[in-house]
Every structure is written in structure tokens, then in C-alpha cells.
Design goal:
Length: 413
């Protein structure tokens, strides 16, 4: 018997997708004009490329950013820690100033996004520092997804780092019925930093070109460089004929750096985020339902799903490592409660094989849930179901006859 649980997308996360900023551009795919993209660009429309402007010449050195003192405590300000590690030169290009002006004119917008990043920023910044990368890279999820772990673009990018399927395969992120590691906070962060490191080397240590390639694809950046070479034009980021989205992408990150460097100058109040681990990774010792884990930790199911958005079915997958991200403050309680949890209480859902004549409303009624919940769990666009397919059905407090009937139709194996 294969057991599994539900997948609830928090209302805040759903609403937040309108704030996401972009999708990766496949090198072979034209830009997509869509409402999701316009939602951000309406607020932060990039200024046109100004080829006549030559930015200050900068020699990029692949040297570690200045590290914060050993034994960082919560008392140390995470924003000051970021500022210490900033390594990009300030730019006065019109595209940068346009984004600075918009951040300044809409302070609550960026404050809200940074607050949403609280569970993730400390971890990401720590990994950036350990690799000796510029601290600006820790802010890339702001530009990518507005720190929404459930962000999904119409073009197919997903997670806080907005990996496209092809790029996810390139960096080895797992995607199957159980998980989508593009949304896995730890796995996607490591993959994103690996990929950025690869691009940094590919473009001779130029972080701006690496970021442009992260957005548009390395093939497009190489093509733009070859074109400028052939026309005896500069080949730095600011002069390349890149897609409009990419021309605004890098300036947006530099503008964010400027805002965090001096928030008071722009009428922005940075949220007070603890400079300490928000989550910890625990071994569950077997499959575990997120709803059960929420009870063991004393957390909400929404919070655990924001920490584990890569678990598509809200349960750790079978036949693999069983790990969960849980709030650091709940670790001791979780371990104690998990040690006392009976094995038959680890999961609360089943995989149900749809039979001829079944309807979603009848299944919902029999399982004491709602059609809306079944559609959300199973990611159904409508209430239409097909005999022979599988559904994830939550196992609540059913009477014995209903439970026996459901279990009789559970997919075995």
C-alpha cells in the first residue's frame, strides 16, 4: 500500500505569485508576453538600453567576499552582514536608476517581499558566503520569484530560483510524481549557486554576464557577444543586444543592492529578520505526512509547506532519503514526538484508483473532504476525472465502512 498526503498552497503564496519578477528564457524560445510578467514590470519597467553609456571599468576578481565574524549571533544585523559582502560596483546607468526610483516610490512592495524571505535568507546568504560569492547573489530570489516558494511562470519556471525544466535537468534537480526539487529550498539553492559558478567561469569571471546568462541562457549571451565583436562594439553587459527582460534583470538586482545599502535614503524600512537559522533539516526515518509533521512540531501546515514546497504530494517520497525542513525552534519537540509516533500514524492519505462511474463530488463526500481540496491536492484544472487514473485522497475520521471501501481501491506497491 502506498500512502501519501495532501498538497495545500497557502493563500499568501498564491497571491504572491503576482509579485514574481521573471522567468528564465530558454535560448531557443522567444520571450513570452504574459500577465504574470507584466505584474512586476508594470511597477518596475526597465529603461531602454543606452549603448552610448560606458560604465566604470571594473576588474572582477574571483576572491571571497569579506566574511562576517565567526560565531555570528542573532544580535548582528543581517542587512549589515549583506552590505559587508556586497561586491558589485555601483552603477548610474538609467536602467538602474529607474528601478531605484520605483522601489523608492513603492516602499511597501519591497518590504513585503523581503519579509516573505525570512525563512530562507539566512540560509542562502550563509551558502553564498561559504562559496566566497558576492552577497548580492543572496538577493537573486527577490528578483526571480519575490521569495515565493510556490512561484510558477507560464513558461514553466518554478521555485524561488525559477528553474526552467531544461536547466533543472542540466543541474541534476529531481522531478517526479513525488517531488519537484526546483522548489526544494536547499536543493535548488545549491543547484542555483553551482550553476551561477559555472556561468561565472564560462564568462571569464564577469558576474554581470553570468547573471544575464542565468536569465536568458548562455547561448543568447554568447550570441550577443559575437555580434558586438563582429561590429567592433563593447562586449560588457551594458552594451550587449540582449532581450528586454534581461536588460532589466541585472539593473534590478543592482538597484536592490543600492536600496539595501542605504534604505533610509529611499524611504524604505527593512524588516527585522533574525540573523540565525530559521529551519533545520531532520531525518524522519521513513515516509512522513506533512500534516502529521505539523502536529508534531506545533507548526501550521502552511508553514511546513513553505519550508518544504518541493514535496509535491506533501509527504516524503518512498525509497529515498526521508528529510524535512522544520522550524529550528521546534526541533527538540519534533524529535521527541516522532520517537513516540506509531508507524501506522505517519501518513493520512492514500492513492485511490478512480473507478468507472466515480465523480469528484462523490469521492469528496465519501472521504469527508471537499471537491476544492481534492482539486488542489491533485492539481486538477477542473472536476473532470478519468477512470483508471490515481487521486490523492485524504484519510480523515471516516466511519469504518467508508475506510474499508477506500482502502480496497488503494493502489498497491
Amino acid at each position: 500500500m502506498t500512502l501519501i498526503h495532501t498538497f495545500w498552497i497557502p493563500a499568501l503564496a498564491v497571491a504572491a505569485t503576482t509579485l514574481t519578477t521573471h522567468h528564465h528564457i530558454s535560448p531557443d524560445t522567444p520571450l513570452v508576453d504574459n500577465d504574470w510578467e507584466r505584474a512586476w514590470n508594470t511597477v518596475l519597467a526597465p529603461a531602454p538600453l543606452q549603448p552610448e553609456i560606458t560604465p566604470p571599468k571594473t576588474v572582477w576578481e574571483n576572491t571571497p567576499a569579506e566574511q562576517p565574524p565567526a560565531g555570528i549571533t542573532e544580535a548582528v544585523d543581517i542587512w549589515e552582514r549583506l552590505r559587508t559582502g556586497f561586491n558589485f560596483p555601483q552603477q548610474d546607468a538609467p536602467a538602474v536608476q529607474a528601478h531605484i526610483d520605483t522601489f523608492h516610490n513603492h516602499p511597501r512592495h519591497i518590504e513585503h517581499i523581503l519579509q516573505r524571505g525570512q525563512p530562507y535568507l539566512f540560509y542562502i546568504l550563509s551558502r553564498v558566503e561559504e562559496r566566497g560569492f558576492p552577497a548580492e547573489l543572496a538577493l537573486l530570489p527577490v528578483i526571480e520569484s519575490a521569495f515565493d516558494p510556490f512561484a510558477h511562470s507560464p513558461a514553466g519556471a518554478a521555485g524561488i530560483w525559477q528553474f526552467m525544466p531544461a536547466t533543472a535537468r542540466h543541474v541534476g534537480l529531481r522531478r517526479d510524481w513525488w517531488v519537484d526539487d526546483r522548489r526544494n529550498i536547499v536543493a535548488a539553492t545549491e543547484a542555483a549557486l553551482d550553476y551561477l559558478s559555472e556561468l561565472h567561469l564560462r564568462f571569464n569571471g564577469d558576474w554581470l554576464l553570468a547573471l544575464a546568462a542565468y536569465n536568458a541562457g548562455p547561448a543568447r549571451v554568447n550570441k550577443a557577444i559575437r555580434l558586438n565583436h563582429s561590429q567592433s562594439k563593447p562586449v560588457d553587459f551594458w552594451h550587449l543586444p540582449l532581450p528586454e527582460e534581461t536588460r532589466g534583470y541585472v539593473p534590478k538586482l543592482i538597484a536592490l543592492q543600492a536600496i539595501i545599502s542605504n534604505p533610509k535614503a529611499y524611504n524604505i524600512t527593512l524588516p527585522a529578520l533574525a540573523n540565525t537559522d530559521y529551519f533545520t533539516v531532520v531525518d524522519t526515518g521513513g515516509q512522513l505526512d506533512l500534516q502529521v509533521a505539523a502536529r508534531l512540531t506545533g507548526s501550521s501546515i502552511d508553514e511546513l509547506q513553505r519550508l518544504n514546497p518541493g514535496l509535491t504530494r506533501s509527504i516524503t517520497p518512498p525509497a529515498s532519503a526521508h528529510t524535512l525542513l522544520i522550524p529550528k525552534a521546534s526541533e527538540q519537540r519534533f524529535r521527541e514526538q516522532l520517537a513516540r509516533l506509531p508507524a501506522d500514524q505517519r501518513v493520512q492519505s492514500v492513492k485511490y484508483r478512480i473507478r468507472q462511474g466515480d465523480t469528484l463530488s462523490a469521492i469528496a463526500q465519501n472521504s469527508q473532504t471537499t471537491v476544492a481540496r481534492l482539486r488542489q491536492i491533485n492539481q486538477l484544472e477542473s472536476s473532470r476525472i478519468i477512470a483508471g487514473k490515481l487521486l490523492i485522497v485524504p484519510m480523515g475520521e471516516h466511519d469504518e465502512d467508508v475506510r474499508v471501501e477506500l482502502l480496497a481501491s488503494v493502489e498497491n506497491g
